[in-house]
From TrEMBL:
Protein name: Leucine-rich repeat domain-containing protein
Region described as Disordered: 1-23
Top-rank taxon, per record: Bacteria
Biased composition (Polar residues): 1-14
Coiled-coil intervals: none
C-alpha cells in the first residue's frame, strides 16, 4: 500500500493498490488516485486542499456531500488539461440529486461513478461530456432531467426499475449507443425496436441511433419529444399517426438519411406535403428531410414561420444516400414566400443551400440560422432589428451582406469564420449596438459601406472600429448601388486564411454539439 500523506484524522488519504471494487470500469486508469472522506456536506474543498496532492486526476469521495461539493468537483474537471480531474468516484458518497448542468460540457471527464443514494439527475447534468463513455445508473435513481446525457459517447445503457421520469432529449444524439435495456420490473417505460416510450405520458422519448429504415410511430403516441430522433442517422422515413398532437423542437435533428416524413391524413395538428412536415394549416414549416431529393424547394405561400432547424443539414455535407460514407450535395436553393415573418434558430444550419431569399415581410432571424451554409450574398430586409449570435458564421462562400436601416443589434460571432466576406453594406444612420464578440474570429478584411450614415460615428464605436480596422470604410450615398469589380472579385482569393483546400472540413472551430450547447446557454441567459 502507498503511504498516506496525512494521518487518518484528516479523513483524507491517497489511493491504494490493493483489491479494486467490482464496479471499477475497465479502462479507468485514473481510478481512486486519491480518496477524500467528508463528515459534513459542503466541506469537500477544504478537505481536498489539506491533501495538497500533485495528482488529482482521479478522486474518490466518501461521506455526505451537497451541491457546493459537486460544483467543486466540476471545477476541478473543467481545466480541460491532461492533469485535471478525469475520474470522479461518488459510489460511497451520500447525495440524492445532481443539479442541473452540474458537469455540462466537461470535455476531459472520462469516468463517473454514481452515488448509490442518488434519486435524481438534473437537466443537462452531463450534457456534452464528450469523453464520458459509460454511465451505470444506480438502482436508487428515480428521475432523469431533460437532455441530461445529450450528445455523449455511451456504448450501452440500462434503465433501472426505479426510474419513473425521463425528460425529453435525455439520451439524444448518442450515436455510438448499440445496447439499451430496461429492467423488467420497470412499468413506466417501454423499449421496442429501438424506440423508447413513456407509457403513461404517451410520449416517444427517443429513437436510438441503432434503429434503421422506416419508423411507423405507434397509434398510442400523442407526443414526439424534443430531439426524439436526434442523430438517428439511418432512418429513411418517419410515419406519424393520427394520435400525435405535439412535436417538440428539433425532433428530427441530424437525421442525415431521412428522405420523407408522412402524416396520417386524419391528423388534426400536422400534415405532410411531398414528404415535408408542416402544421395542419401549413403556416409553419417544421422539418424538411435532409436527404429529400431536390435541387430547389419552393416554400408554400401560406407559411409564416420556419421552425427551429427547419432545413438543418438539408443537402449539406452531412447528408448521405444509401452509399455508405458518401455525401451528397442536394438542395441548393430555397425560395421563401412574401408573408413569411420568422426564420427560426438553426433554420439552415449545416445545410448545403447556396441561395436563399429573405422576403420583405421577415422580421425575426434566429440564432445560427445560416450557420455553415454555401450562400454567397444576402440582403436583410427593412424591419429586421436584430442579427442574433452566429447568423452568418462559418459561411465560407459569403462575399456580401446588406444590412437594413432598422438594425439595432448585432450578436456574437455573427460573421465568425466567414473569411471570404468582402463587403458589408449598412444603411443604419448610427452604429447598431454590438456584442463584445460581434466581429471576432473574422479572418476577412471586409470593406464597410455606410449608406447615408456617419463614418465618424462608426469609427468612434469600439466594435465597429475593430471591423473597420480589419478592412476599410467608405461613405455610400443613400440608395447608391454597390458594384463589385472583376479585380475585387479576384482579390477575394487572398482574403481567406484557409486556402487552398476545401476549408469546411479543415477549419470548423466548433462542432454541432458545441454549437447547440452554446445556444442553450444563450437561451438560459436570456431568461434571467
Amino acid at each position: 500500500m502507498k503511504k498516506d500523506i496525512f494521518s487518518s484524522s484528516d479523513n483524507i488519504s491517497s489511493g491504494g493498490e490493493g483489491e479494486q471494487p467490482i464496479y471499477r470500469q475497465d479502462n479507468d486508469t485514473f481510478f481512486n488516485r486519491i480518496t477524500v472522506e467528508v463528515n459534513e456536506p459542503g466541506t469537500l474543498e477544504e478537505k481536498f486542499n489539506h491533501l495538497n496532492s500533485k495528482d488529482m486526476t482521479g478522486i474518490r469521495v466518501v461521506g455526505p456531500i451537497d451541491d457546493k461539493d459537486l460544483a467543486f468537483l466540476a471545477k476541478l474537471s473543467s481545466g480541460n488539461e491532461l492533469d485535471s480531474l478525469h475520474s470522479i468516484n461518488l459510489h460511497d458518497a451520500v447525495v440524492t440529486r445532481i443539479p442541473d448542468k452540474c458537469f455540462e460540457g466537461l470535455a476531459y471527464l472520462t469516468h463517473f461513478y454514481f452515488p448509490q443514494t442518488l434519486k435524481a439527475i438534473g437537466s443537462y447534468a452531463f450534457a456534452y461530456c464528450n469523453a464520458l463513455q459509460e454511465a451505470v445508473l444506480p438502482n436508487s435513481l428515480e428521475s432523469i432531467g431533460e437532455k441530461a446525457f445529450v450528445h455523449l459517447h455511451l456504448k450501452k445503457l440500462n434503465l433501472p426499475a426505479s426510474v419513473t421520469n425521463i425528460g425529453e432529449g435525455a439520451f439524444a444524439g448518442i450515436k455510438e449507443l448499440q445496447e439499451v435495456t430496461i429492467d423488467k420490473a420497470n412499468t413506466a417505460f417501454r423499449l421496442e425496436d429501438g424506440l423508447l416510450t413513456d407509457i403513461k405520458g404517451k410520449k416517444l422519448l427517443q429513437c436510438f441511433n441503432y434503429r434503421k429504415g422506416d419508423v411507423h410511430i405507434a397509434e398510442t403516441i400523442e407526443t414526439i419529444g424534443t430531439l426524439a430522433f436526434g442523430r438517428a442517422q439511418e432512418i429513411t422515413a418517419v410515419y406519424i399517426p393520427v394520435s400525435v398532437t405535439h412535436i417538440g423542437n428539433d425532433a428530427f435533428a441530424s437525421m442525415y438519411a431521412l428522405e420523407r416524413i408522412e402524416v396520417a391524413v386524419e391528423n388534426t395538428h400536422y400534415c405532410s406535403v411531398d414528404g415535408v412536415l408542416f402544421d395542419k394549416q401549413q403556416t409553419m414549416l417544421i422539418s424538411y428531410p435532409p436527404s429529400k431529393k431536390a435541387d430547389t424547394y419552393i416554400v408554400p405561400a401560406s407559411v409564416r414561420r420556419l421552425a427551429t432547424g427547419a432545413f438543418q443539414e438539408a443537402g449539406g455535407q452531412n447528408t448521405h444516400t444509401a452509399t455508405k460514407g458518401k455525401s451528397v450535395h442536394g438542395l441548393k436553393e430555397v425560395v421563401l414566400p412574401e408573408g413569411l415573418e420568422t426564420i427560426g434558430d438553426n433554420a439552415f444550419l449545416f445545410s448545403g443551400v447556396e441561395k436563399v431569399n429573405i422576403p420583405s415581410t421577415v422580421r425575426t432571424l434566429g440564432h445560427n440560422c445560416f450557420y455553415y451554409t454555401d450562400i454567397e450574398t444576402m440582403s436583410i430586409p427593412e424591419g429586421v432589428e436584430r442579427l442574433e449570435e452566429g447568423t452568418f458564421a462559418a459561411c465560407y462562400s459569403l462575399k456580401k451582406v446588406v444590412l437594413p436601416s432598422t438594425l439595432t443589434y448585432i450578436g456574437a460571432g455573427v460573421f465568425e469564420l466567414s473569411d471570404a466576406l468582402a463587403h458589408i453594406e449598412i444603411h443604419t444612420p448610427i452604429p447598431p449596438r454590438c456584442d463584445a464578440e460581434a466581429f471576432s474570429k473574422l479572418g476577412a478584411a471586409p470593406q464597410l459601406h455606410i449608406a447615408g450614415g456617419d463614418i465618424a460615428a462608426y469609427k468612434a464605436d469600439a466594435h465597429w472600429a475593430e471591423l473597420i480596422n480589419k478592412g476599410s470604410a467608405r461613405h455610400l450615398a443613400s440608395g447608391a448601388p454597390l458594384k463589385d469589380t472583376k479585380e475585387k472579385a479576384q482579390n477575394l482569393k487572398g482574403l481567406s486564411r484557409y486556402q487552398p483546400v476545401d476549408p469546411r472540413l479543415a477549419i470548423l472551430a466548433e462542432d454541432l454539439n458545441e454549437l447547440r450547447r452554446r445556444q442553450e446557454q444563450h437561451k438560459d441567459n436570456a431568461k434571467k
